[in-house]
Amino acid sequence: MDLTLHTTSLPHDDPDASLAFYRDVLGFEVRSDVGQGPMRWITVGPVGRPNTSILLAPPAAGPGVTDDERRAITEMMAKGTYGWILLATPDLDATFEKVQAGDTEVVQEPTEQPYGLSDCAFRDPAGNMVRIQELR
Q1: Cα–Cα distances in Å, from 19 out to 3, 14, 42, 97?
Q2: To the nearest 5 percent, what fractions of the chain are helix, strand and coil?
Q3: pLDDT in tens, 75-110
Q4: Rounded to an integer, what distance in angstroms lies between the CA atom of residue 8 and that of residue 53?
Q5: What is the distance between the alpha carbons of residues 54 and 30, in angstroms, rounded to a whole number?
Q6: Alpha-carbon distance 8 to 33, whole Å?
Q7: Does the pTM exceed 0.85?
């Protein structure tokens, strides 16, 4: 079997704020932007890596999602416990400084973890946890 990660998704509750974070703060390129208002599906990804993407999507937009499930998802997003992603960089300190300068909510400054990696963490505008590890 030959598999690769192509696209993962994260919810957004403000597409413009999410777009600004992933494009302007993290430096990802916009691959597509479909829909309007809060019902926008925005695909972003690292420059020079066209086969790896993040789909920023409206939460609970599917027809099979109940009102109770929508409320639960909204509550979890507000607490920052619904979505998360793990990114990597060769220079964690420089990346941390750049992201922090983007007026982003810092969850954890660069820290050497007991499992042998250094990482930091932020929340995106929708409350998703964005952890960034240093490649070694």
Answers
A1: 28, 9, 8, 20
A2: 25, 40, 40
A3: 998 888 999 999 999 999 999 999 999 889 999 999
A4: 7
A5: 10
A6: 16
A7: yes
